[in-house]
Structures are given as structure tokens and as C-alpha cells.
Amino acid sequence: MFEKDASAMPIYHLAVKSVSRSTGRSAVAAIAYRAGGCLENERDGLVQDYTRRSGIEDAFIVVPQGAEWAEDRSALWNAAEAAEKRNDAKVAREYELGLPAELDAGQRRDLVRAFAEDIRDRYGVAVDAAIHAPHDYGDDRNHHAHVMTTTRVVDADGLGRRRASSTCVHRRQSRSRRSGSGGPNRSTMRWNWRRWPSGAIIAAIPAKASRWSQP
After folding, report:
1. Residues 134-159: pLDDT tens digits?
2. Options 2.60.40.10, 3.40.50.300, 3.30.930.30, 1.20.1250.20; which CATH number does 14-207 get?
């Protein structure tokens, strides 16, 4: 298990995006592509089949306690689509994470899982993560992950009526730590990601990476 640590090496990239109907996207199609799965979007009947896609090292879902139904990828993201009625609704959030090339596959998985569990615990959402290997073209150090979250709290009964941050576990955090769309503030998330992984991870990677350690 990895923990945040201010002395950890910085990680180069975190991009925060929304999956929005206003741009013609759906959460079902987005996660099928990222996880290399085959899912039917019950809203429009379209089947998204990316089972032949290569380069996907791992994919997993973490959910709040009592919401085990959401560990089914199809059930989760079709529920996320059904919860939103507006044609311009944001149906998911996505965090694109750059991963240190010095980590092995197991360490990358543990790092992404720790990040996903932190979001779940802070905001009460379901988190679906896919870890990708570098593309055949381009930088062969470009290990990265796509982490998609629901925009609403997830519990045993489904997706909540309120936005995720309105029932955030950390109710005392300031408004400056939340975005206008009801989710985690982008600058806050980037700062949190910059503080990962812990000193224990640094000790596990080659000594040449120690130059990235912060004072």
C-alpha cells in the first residue's frame, strides 16, 4: 500500500477532464475503450467492443462499502448514464495520470489503486481505473493510467441524488478545494498527485531516481 508523502518524487502529468454529453461522449463508451471491454450503452443501444485493443496492463474498480453492485462495469456506467437526464450532462470525470517509468507493473498498479481509493474515500464515488503501457510509437517510458469516477455518490441503492462533493467525507474542507461542477478542485488534485508516491516507493526504485526527491 502506498501513502502520500511530501518527500516523494514528483510525477510529471495529471490531466482532469469531464465526460460530457454536450461533446457527444458517453461514460459507457469511454470506459469500454480505456478498459478494453465490451459494453452495451443501454441509453442508445450501441455496443462498444474494444476487447481486441492492446496495451492495457490492468483494469479494476473500487467502490464504497456496501456498493458492491458497482463492481460490475456495465451496471456501474449504465447507472451513471441513467442518473443524468440533461442532454449536456457530465456523466463522469476522468484523471489521466503519468506513472514513473522506474516502477514495475506491480508498483504501478499499487500506486494507481491507492490514488483511486483516496478519491473513493474522500468523495464517496465509484472509481474505475485502467493502466496502459506505452504506445508502440513515441516515448517508451510513457506508462499512464486513466481513472474515471462517477459524478455522484454511489451507495447500496445506486447513485445518489446529490453531487459527490456535497456529501464529501471531508466536509470541513474549504470551498477552494472544490470545483464549480461539484467535484474535486483541479489544482488540489494535481497537488495531491504530486505528493505521491511515498518514500517507501522511492526506496524501491533505482538510485538514479533519487534526484527527483524533494527536500
Report:
1. 877 766 778 999 999 999 999 999 99
2. 3.30.930.30
